[in-house]
Structures are given as C-alpha cells and as structure tokens.
Amino acid sequence: MRFDIVTLFPAIFEGYMTQGLLGKAIQRELVQIHQHDLRDWAPQTTHKPVDDKPFGGGPGMLIQVEPTVNCVEAVEKKADQSARRILLTPQGKRFDQRMAEDFATSGRLMLLCGRYEGFDQRVTDILEPEEVSIGDFVLNGGEVAAMVIVDAVVRLLPGVLGDENSSIDDSFSRGNRLLEFPQYTRPREFRGHAVPDVLTSGDHKAIAAWREQQSLQRTKQRRSDLLRDE
Ligand code: 6GU
Asked: What residue stretch is flagged as signal peptide (predicted)?
C-alpha cells in the first residue's frame, strides 16, 4: 500500500517511519510512504509563501488553494494507481476502526495535512477529498492525525503483523466490540500484587471464560457506549 502525505512539515514523519512495525513493513516493501512538501508547489521562487490571511478578516492564516491543488495533481501522477484523497481536519468525519478497515482495502491514500486555520474552502470544492478528524480536540496541524491513520491502517495490511500478533482480536475490530482483558507476564508476584490464579492454572476453558468476563466488565465500566446496538 502507498501513502502520499502532503504537508508543510515533511520532517515530522522521518523518525516515525523507521521505527517498529512500520519501519519493518517499509523495509519489506509492504508499505511505501512518500512525503510531499507543499512549499515545493508555491508559485513564487524566492519567498515561497503558501499561506495568506482570510478574506473577511479573522485570526490566523489559511493554506492557499493553488499550491495545494497543483501539489495533489502532480503527486497523483507519480504512480499509475489512483489515490483516495483524505483531508485531515477537526471538521471531518470521526476516524474509527471501521474506517481504518475500509482504508486498508484501498491501495493508495493521499493524506492532506492542514496547518494554521486550515485550507481555503476551494481545496475541498475542487479536490473533493473525504474530510477526516481523529477526535473532538484541536491539534496544531494534521500531521499527527495523518500518522495516527497510517499507524492504524498499516497494522491491518496482510503480512504486517504476522500470525502471532493478529489484529483480529483487537478491541473495536470487526466482530469484536469489547475492550481487551488485562494481561500479565513474569514475575508471578510483585510488591504483593499476584497474577490471578486462573491464568496459571493451565485450565484453558477457565482462562477463556475469565478473559471474556473481564472484557465485558471493563467495557461496561469504561465504554458502555460500545455495548449499545448501532
Ligand atoms: Cl485531522 N486535524 C487537526 N488539526 N486537529 C484535529 C484533527 C485533525 N482531528 C482532531 N483534531
């Protein structure tokens, strides 16, 4: 799967892409991530501004339509495959596991990261991206949100996790709407806190029943909204 990330701060992604599961997935060529600096599409050659004040007044600066549309159109031509266009904004549809599963079925995502007060509305009118938010809070820019989406999508791609860490049992995944049960590893006791006896009993049926009950209890206590029918 290919990700194209359009941003004013391409360096934000560099460390993230070399580490952990994502770093491995890129090395194994299961995933390609390309960052594109919006400033490279600024019309002027010397100062290269890509932002300006909003018409009608108001605080902050907007990212301009011309560099954004030119950038997206040029980047799309860099591969044969068409891209699903996603614009990161707190005004977007809320990202969730179901959306991640849907994105994971498309071969190519183009992620547009806003900064300042956002993009000129004509970016949306012309490019018709899907507008996506990662939650009800405001970030300084879409870059962290883009990383969240890449992270959630990549671990769903075939071959990325390996069988021993399948994502099928994850909280929120299709057919699982419960939070995960608590887990323990060695030592069996630390500062008087012991591992629950059932987990060391060797009784696999009892362990499964305990975990199911713990998942249900946690979900009721912490996220009862997950138990209501959609
Ligand atoms: Cl996608 N962008 C920004 N700037 N803030 C956000 C967000 C996105 N999602 C939640 N807050």
From this structure: none
Going by C-alpha positions, the residue among 17, 31, 4 that lies closest to residue 160 is 31
Question: Which residues contact ligand 1 via a Cβ below 6 A?
Answer: 88-90, 114, 133-135, 137-139, 141-142, 145
Residue with tokens 């960052």: 35
Is 135 annotated to bind a ligand? Reply is yes
Q: Which atom of ligand 1 is nearest to the CA of 134?
A: 9
Residue with tokens 């995944």: 173
Catalytic residues: 90, 117, 155, 170
Q: Mean pLDDT across the chain, nearest whole number?
A: 94
Show the tokens assigned to 89. Answer: 């904004």
The answer to whether the predicted template modeling score (pTM) of the entire model surpasses 0.90 is yes
* Block residue for tokens 């809070």: 137
Which domain range does residue 183 map to? 177-227
Residues 103 and 207 in one domain: no
CATH of the domain at 46: 3.40.1280.10
| First CA to last CA distance, the chain | 30
Least confident of 56-60, 117-121, 169-173, 203-207: 169-173
What is the CATH number for 218? 1.10.1270.20
Among 27-31, 70-74, 164-168, 204-208, the least confident range: 164-168
